Amino acid sequence: MLDDGSSLPIQGVSINWDKIDECSYLREIEAIKGLDYLAFNKNITIFVGENGSGKSTMLEAIAVCYGFNPEGGTKNYSFSTYDSHSELCDAIKLFRGIRKPKWGYFLRAESFYNVATAEEMYAREDPRGRQEHFHEKSHGESFLQLIQSNFQGNGLYLLDEPEAALSPQRQLTLLLEIVNCAKEDAQFIMVTHSPILLGIPGAEIMSFDDGQIHTIDYEDTDSYQITKMFIENKEQLLKRLLDE
Ligand SMILES: Nc1ncnc2c1ncn2[C@@H]1O[C@H](COP(=O)(O)OP(=O)(O)OP(=O)(O)O)[C@@H](O)[C@H]1O
């Protein structure tokens, strides 16, 4: 497994604030508004933080700047069901490593239905007669199937809250897939609230809380601490919460 950022496909990202409107909401996002450069140091980077702290905005900008469709898919996907990507996509610059990934995928739980539809359509047009039937499976089953048929070594994968579709058991399967691909030089940048996925060994966790993006230990994340507190003190915690 890679242990530093020197040979990563995406080594960092900078923001040119001159390209962002003075009135843009991007200037209100605490973690992003003071950011000039963000370095990736490990081949698994995880963005954590409170709802609305800017994680998906940053991930989407990286994805679109790299050439992915804002709704997800491979770089070849050109379908669009809505046009809502932020102007951050045009204001960032990616610092790319020498090594080019062989394959890549941008996967967002929130627009997976559209990606699955596109996957089925592209499969029907495939001269090799490839068959994909994502809509005949459950959300989690099809999500994991798509991951398992697309993840490989030396790929670039951008994942936005993949846990939304997956049971805890299947999150463990995803964790294993990620670790195995990372051992073969794949790079992952993932947004997650999952205390399971956050536990991926060797990942660099970046928190978008407290006004700036900063690295954080697994045990210091809210996802870990609140889950642990809930499981260990469920009765007391619920009583306090419900009595308020
Ligand atoms: N088109 C838009 N216009 C105005 N504000 C927006 C727009 N899109 C996003 N925002 C705001 O930008 C902020 C960051 O949103 P973002 O989706 O990046 O958060 P997040 O950290 O990914 O949250 P979550 O964990 O809930 O997915 C939020 O306050 C959101 O309301």
TrEMBL record:
This protein is called what? Answer: Putative ATPase
The biological processes this protein is annotated with in GO are:
double-strand break repair; iron ion transport
Q: Is Nucleotide-binding included in the keywords of this UniProt record? A: yes
Q: Name one GO molecular function term.
A: ATP hydrolysis activity
Q: Which Pfam families match?
A: AAA_21, AAA_23
Name the membrane topology term: Peripheral membrane protein
The cross-references to SMART domains, in alphabetical order and at most eight, read:
AAA
InterPro entries to which the protein is assigned, alphabetical: AAA+_ATPase, ABC_transporter-like_ATP-bd, ATPase_AAA_core, P-loop_NTPase, Rad50/SbcC_AAA, Siderophore_ABC-ATPase
Which SUPFAM superfamilies does the record associate with it? P-loop containing nucleoside triphosphate hydrolases
Kindly list the places in or outside the cell where this protein is found, as annotated in its UniProt entry.
Cell membrane
Q: A GO CC term?
A: plasma membrane
Q: Where is the ABC transporter domain?
A: 15-235
Q: Tell me which UniProt keywords the record has, alphabetically.
A: ATP-binding, Cell membrane, Ion transport, Iron, Iron transport, Membrane, Nucleotide-binding, Transport
